[in-house]
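USER: If only I could read backbone structure tokens as easily as an amino acid sequence. It would mean a lot if you studied the pair and described how this chain folds. Here is the record:
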Amino acid sequence: MARKIAARLIVAVLLGIVTGYAVGKSLASDAAKGSSLTLKEYVDDFENHKKDLLESGTPLAAAIVVGVLMVTVALGLYELLVLAVDKVLAALDRRRDVGMQPGRRRRGKAWTCGLRCDHNQPAEGIR
């Protein structure tokens, strides 16, 4: 459970970094266009700007359906990324547990200290 939460946090942070970078680049591009645009150029192209603002090319119902699909795909992609990161973390966790600790040996499914104590005896039939 903790590994799954860690995977969700890792994916959320990475998606936040990617989204922040994309928004920052878009804002920088808009700022560059805005700084190079003169009043005369804007006034000459005002009718096109006005037409773009007034016209709605997509009906509201289609926009809602597309919005629902986009959110569904985004959440599906997020869950797939979480699953992939969880698998990677599980593989890394298994690699860490593979090595035997000095002075310990494994019997059955539990670690034992290697001594002939009652608490170290494996279940019947596992020798």
Summary: The chain has four helices and two strands. The CA atoms of residues 42 and 48 lie 10 Å apart.
